[in-house]
Amino acid sequence: MTRRSIIAGTGAALPARSVSNNELAAWKNIDTTDEWIVERTGIRNRHIAGEGETTATLAADAARRALAAAGVAADRIGLIVLATATPDQTFPATATIVQTMLGIDDCIAFDVAAVCTGFLYALSVADNMLKGGMADHALVIGAETFSRILDWEDRTTCVLFGDGAGAVVLTAEEGDPDSGILASRLHADGRHNDLLYVTGGPSTTQTVGTVRMKGKEVFRHAVVNLAGVMHEVLDAAGHEPGDVDWVVPHQANKRILDATAKKLGLAPEKVIVTVDRHANTSAASVPLALDTAVRDGRIRRGDLLVLEAMGGGFTWGAAVVRY
Ligand code: UT7
After folding, report:
1. Domain extents in the chain
2. Which residue owns the Cα nearest ligand 1 atom 45?
3. Which CATH number fits domain 180-322: 2.160.20.10, 3.40.47.10, 3.40.50.2000, 3.40.190.10?
4. Mean pLDDT (whole number) for 251-280
5. Could you tell me if 151 and 210 are in contact, meaning their C-beta atoms sit under 8 angstroms apart?
6. What is the pTM of this model?
7. How far is the CA of 40 from the centre of ligand 1 (A)?
8. Ligand 1 atom 44: residue of nearest CA
9. Can 116 be counted among the known catalytic residues?
10. Is 281 in the pocket of ligand 1 (CB under 6 A)?
């Protein structure tokens, strides 16, 4: 028997407003077409946060749903790790705002910044803290309002992103070694800062800045890095691609999902796809996709999952989970 981190429940939250490609183009006066966006990315809709909706409010809603699904009361949470690149404030950490919204008086709470890979980083940090005995129940959240750092004049980026949040309750249990998070692998290579970044920051421009991306180059790195880290993490967990029931990937581009699955020899039907409905929600995309497939009944207890993501930094990572 060893101490394991089990995904006890999942939850998600999306802004009320869903915006189609055509609606977005008309609303923000973007020189684009539904055909171009669907063909190049698979995106049809995204949710955009409105007044009163922030990264913290979305995160708290997703967390409440995850707590309800897990049957864990908020006051039993000892750790909140929140992944975001779009915090409500530069400080304090959005995790502490969510903590207060959930009515938790005292727990460990902090943010993790690894952009689109943020949820994988947060999951691994929380897993290790639970295994080390720092807490028994953790909330791991990915939450973003990327619509607030987009340059609506830059059609090469502004059509790609959406807002949302996803959360899991991780519970430490003395259990079967083939349960919960079986392995995680994380990477970063800071030499690629100029391929995907935000133009501002408190210490440089004293502004928030807007997203810039050299899409083609990011695409090329994404397929190679994701296939590599998926092989690595499956090896570490003692599994092969053929053992995988579901891949729950970061949702940046349907073509990246297809190309990565092909490289691993995985059937496209085993890949959870939500990019058509949510677009790229950065750190929120993996837990949003996970919650979608848990709630629609595709992902069942006992299934072998591979979670993976790649984003700014570059950062990339993957986890193998016996759900
Ligand atoms: O979440 C972090 C990870 N992010 C990613 O993984 C994103 C990776 N990259 C991608 O998903 C793709 O590279 C994009 C979807 C961003 C772009 O697709 P692409 O097939 O690489 O297109 P491109 O950048 O080479 O652009 C092709 C053409 C260009 O026109 P010219 O120069 O060929 O005349 C662009 O100006 O498409 C044009 N274009 C657009 N046209 C209509 C770029 N954006 C748009 C647009 N609407 N929104």
Report:
1. 2-175, 180-322
2. 156
3. 3.40.47.10
4. 96
5. yes
6. 0.98
7. 7
8. 156
9. yes
10. no
